[in-house]
Structure formats: C-alpha cells, structure tokens
Amino acid sequence: MSPLVAFGRFEVLRLVRSWRFIIITVGFPVVFYMLFLGDHTPSKAVAGTVPWRAYLMVSMCSFGALVAGLTSGGARLSAERASGWARQLRVTPIPTWSYVLTKVSASMLVILPVIILVEIVGATFGGVQLAARIWFELAAVLWVSSVPFAALGVLVGFTVNAETAFATVTGLMFVLGYFGGLFNPVSSMPSVLRSAATALPNYHHDQLGLSLIQGTALGLEHWAVLVAYTAAIALAVMMRHRKEELKGTA
Amino acid sequence: MMRMDSENDGLPQPRTLPSAPPPPLVAPVEPVPALSFRDVSHRYRSHPALDRLTVEILRGQTVALLGPNGAGKSTAIALVLGLISAQEGSVEVLGTDPREAVRQGRVGAMLQTGAGSGLPPNVRVATVLRLVQRLYPSPTPLDETVRSAGIGHLLDRQTDRLSGGQAQLVRFAVAIAGNPELLVLDEPTAAMDVAGQRAFWAMIRQFAQEGRTTVFATHHLREADEIADRVVVVNHGHVVADGPGSSIKAKIAGRRIRFSCSMPDAVLLDSLEGVTDVDLQGTHVWLNSLDSDATVRDLVRHAVQFEDLEVVGPDLQDAYVALTERRPSIERSSTS
Ligand SMILES: Nc1ncnc2c1ncn2[C@@H]1O[C@H](COP(=O)(O)OP(=O)(O)OP(=O)(O)O)[C@@H](O)[C@H]1O
Ligand SMILES: [Mg+2]
Predict the structure, then answer these.
(1) A95 touches chain B (CB under 8 A)
(2) Residue A48's pLDDT band (boundaries 50, 70, 90)?
(3) What is the pLDDT of residues A129-188, one digit of tens each?
(4) Ligand 1 site-directed mutation target among B41, B53, B75, most atoms within 8 Å of CB
(5) HSE of A42 in the Cβ direction (CA atoms, 13 Å)?
(6) What pLDDT, on a 0 to 100 scale, did the predictor assign at position B5?
(7) Beta carbons of B159 and B125 less than 8 angstroms apart
(8) Which domains can be identified in chain B, with CATH numbers?
(9) Containing H/E element for B311?
C-alpha cells in the first residue's frame, strides 16, 4: 500500500468510525429540512419557476454540503493541530500538500452521503418528484461543486484553535446559509442582501442545483465563482501554513 | 579557564571527541555527519531563539542537547526536522537538506507537545503505528517496534485514553517505527515517572547500539550525562559547552563557592583542590568545585583572606548562566 493510500484510508476510517460526528453531520441537515417541511408558510412558494418543495430540497442539499464540509475539517482538524499530531505528520515522509489534499478528499467523502440522504428525504417526505436522471445529476453536480466547502472546513481547521473552532463552524454555517439564500429565497430578500448573496459560494452552489431542476443550462458563472473560491481558499491555506511556519507554530 | 579551553579543543574537530560507551556495531563509514549546524541564527518575530549556533554531530553518536527553558533546544530540533527554515546559516541532516532527509524517511522524531498527546484522537494505538509504518520506505516490523518501545499492553487502547507517560511511549514507538537513521527526541521523558524514565533510556541505549544517531533535548544534567556520549550545552541559542558528560558535569554540576577577597589571585584559586573554574569580578570570587569541602580546606591552608563565604548547590540555572558568561573564551578557543 502506498503511503498516500495508507494515509487516505486511515483518515477515512477514522472519520467513519466517529459515530457522534457522523450522526451530527448527516443528521443535522436532515432534521433542519424536516423542520422546514413542517413550516408550511406561503412565502416559500415564491421561488421563481421552481416548485417550492424542490426548491427547499435543493437548498437543504446545499446546506448539508456546507455543514458537512465545515464540520469534517473544522474542529477535528484544529483538535489534531492542538494535540501535536499534525506536527508529527510533518516529520514523516508524506508531504504537507498531501495532508491537506487528503483532508479535503475525506470531507468530500462525507458530503456525498449527506446530499443523497437529503434527496431521499425529499423524495419520501418532501413530496419532490423528479426524473431518475435528474436525481442522479443533482447529486453528482452538487457533490462535485462542494469542493470549496470541503476546502473551507480545512481552512477553518488550519486557522482557528480548538476552543473557537466549534463556534466558528456554527457561525459560518448559519451566516453563509442565511445570506446565501438557503433558508429564504434570495428573490425575497432586500436588494442589498441580494447582491451580497451573489458573492457567496453557497448561493452559486444552490443555483447549480436549481438550474438542473428547471432544466436550464448550468450557468458558467456559478462554476466560475466556485472555482475562484476554491482557489482563494487553497491560497489562504498555503499562506496560513507559511505564516505558521515562520512563527514556528506550524 | 585553561582547563575549559583544552576541553573545548575538540569542538572544531569532533572526531577526536571521546565517546564513553562502546563504539556502535555499525561503524560510521561515511564521513558525512549526521547533523551539522553552521552559524545558524533564528528569531521569532524580533525574539532571538538561536544565535550563531554551530555544532556537528557524527553518525552513531548519542548526543544530548542540554539547556534551560527557552535555550533554543526545540528551535534547533525544528530546524533539524525541517519544520522551520534557517533564517541565517545552514543546517544539513544526513548530508542533505533537512526536509529532504525527512522526506526520504531517514529521520524519526518525538516532538515536544506541551499538553497534547501528539497522537490523533479517537483511534487505536495499533492503527496509528500501522499507519506510520506505511509512511516509511523501509520500516521496522511492527512487533519489533512494539517490543522496543515496550507498549504491547497499549496496542488496543484508544489514543485519547492514555496517560501522559504512556502517550510518550507510544510517541517513541511512532518515532522509531520508520527505522530511522537519525532519531531526534525533544524532552522525551518529561511525563514519565522514574521507573519509566529508566526503562526508556535503556531502550534508547539499545537503539544506539544499532549504529544509529540519537539526539535528545533535556534539562536534566544527569540524564544527559548518563545517556549521551556527548553533551552539547545550549543557552541563549548558542553552544556554551560541548564535550563528554563527565567534563560537562565537572563544569556545571559541582558546587559554587562564592566569597569576597580584596586581592584575589586567579592562578592560585584555579590550582585549589576540586576547583574546575574561577570567575573573578573585582573583589567578588566565584569558584566552581567538584569537592567544596576540599576546596574550602585548601583556601584556609593557602591563607586566602576570604569574607562572606557561601557554598551553593548545583543550581543548573546558575550553571547555565555561568557557562554563558564564559562564552567569549569558548569562542576564542574554538576558532584558534
Ligand atoms: N513559536 C514561537 N514564537 C515566539 N517565540 C518563540 C516560539 N517558540 C519559541 N520561542 C522563543 O524562542 C526561545 C527558544 O525557545 P525554544 O522552544 O527553542 O526553547 P527550549 O530550549 O526548547 O525550551 P524548553 O526547555 O522550555 O522547551 C524562547 O525564548 C522562546 O520564548
Ligand atoms: Mg523545548
């Protein structure tokens, strides 16, 4: 087994084995979705050309991806830094980039089942009806475009310390969720907030899903924003690492 | 002072350094040193941690880096492991760049972790060891690592349910799992009880017998003296003494005798029984002595007119300071 495969396997197994983490990460968006489903207010119907039930499900998929990305990296990674394990790994032959990449990949692996689970809830309790191909494409597109959320979680884990990691993750989750229009359609927001939403990655993530449901083309601008975010976050992780190295605390 | 200088003659040509324990089974055939620091300076923001540190360690040696808190030991180790880059000067490890040596899997390390366990949370000890083993190109068989570190009884434990000393043993196993040529340990026995420490150093001796190079940081002179072939004393980021443990012990472990004397005679004082060092500052005299009783008797015999005589125990902190104050003479001797 090559070192990178061994490390990847180790990370994934460790992630899968922590039940509490899995239940919270996977369960949270689902519970949240259920709460929204119960709250049958008419304002939810104002979702443009998308039926509000489908709209809600896509938003919750997007929210779930965001939550899973943030929690997979976030607190777990900063705990690892605090314990000294991250530093110990740096004195083994595996390069730092592969450590970061493995973390992002492991987060991606957690994101996929979250998206699928929200879809299942949508199809059963949520009253969403879609062609089989759309269900599949929706999961695939939303998953692939979740990379910036996985990267964001890793950035948070690299940046904040173990004590503030949980608060930071929770804060980011709701701020991005709310202003990105995952809880309320962006079209129902005041114009200031509407332009703010278009600057956030999860707004564009959500829009990719909605385009699939509407049957319109996947807007290139959405992909572009998500790729730009991923690049910016990767750069921030690199700068952060460089800074810690200079400070001697990496 | 004279004595000190002669002991430090070995510094620029470390090959001549005496090594107390029997030579390693695998003789260091290659002339490339395991580790070499040349005029390395490092500062954190504006805070200096290393100040023109120069030291060379040959293969097969077991070397202690002895120094008080904040001396720069961990900073030196971070440089050896490529965790930080030298701001000034050069560091070479096993004949190459530190990062390259680490990447090739030739270095194993036990870092100073403060309160942390240094291990990943929520995973079995055996799983961690198996992972680490797979990260190295030619690892030691797992059962051998487990036996060497004496952690057979800990394999099935979760890493976050280990005591401080147990976690340290597991981290030692992590350090040796990859079969490294160079082993670097930063205060490895900090959380261990006395029995644990003794067992630990027995393992290190075993490890050194296999011809590997071991460098460890410690505050404990006794540990350094008992375990290492050579003790490098560091303070304020600089080598202040370097030699076999016995000579270092003579220099810093003895008693300090201090008194005032209107006209101190340095040559006479230096010749007194037990005296290893003389420091004069005006009428204030500090003597380092291996045998304070004999020295005081000799003082009386030579009718030295002392006042306010005090004998102070081996306060390491003072000893380090004393060594640091003598730095210029060491430099003179090592450049000559
Ligand atoms: N990350 C850091 N940021 C700022 N200053 C630091 C940092 N790490 C160490 N220092 C400072 O650099 C100096 C050398 O520290 P270092 O950790 O190398 O000492 P040490 O010999 O290992 O001490 P100890 O025995 O306490 O572990 C100290 O004065 C310390 O305060
Ligand atoms: Mg230290």
Answers:
(1) yes
(2) low
(3) 889 999 999 999 999 999 999 999 999 999 998 888 889 999 999 999 888 888 877 777
(4) B75
(5) 0
(6) 40
(7) yes
(8) 33-249 (3.40.50.300), 253-313 (3.30.70.980)
(9) strand B306-312
> d(Cα A226, Cα B64) in Å, to the nearest integer?
52
The count of structural domains within chain A is 1
Q: Which range has the worst mean pLDDT, B4-13, B140-149, B284-293, B306-315?
A: B4-13
For residue B250, which phi and psi values (nearest 5 degrees)?
-60, -35
At residue B221, φ and ψ (nearest 5 deg) are -60, -40
d(CA B131, CA B134): 5
Per-position b or e across B311-329, b if 16+ CB within 10 A of its CB: eeeeebeebbebbbebbee
Identify the residue whose C-alpha is closest to ligand 1 atom 12.
Answer: B49
Structural domain harbouring A42: 3-249
The more confident residue out of A188 and B43 is B43
Q: What is the pLDDT, as a whole number, of residue B4? A: 40
Q: How buried is A144 (Cβ within 10 angstroms: 0-12 exposed, 13-18 middle, 19+ buried)?
A: middle
What CA–CA distance (Å, rounded) separates A248 from B85? 9
ipTM of the complex, rounded to two decimals: 0.84
Residue of A nearest to B83 (CA): A245
What is the average per-residue pLDDT within B289-304? 85
Which amino acid is located at B30 in the chain? E
Question: Would the CB atoms of B81 and A1 count as touching at under 8 Å?
Answer: no
> What pTM was computed for the model?
0.79
DSSP B304: -
pLDDT score recorded for residue B319:
61
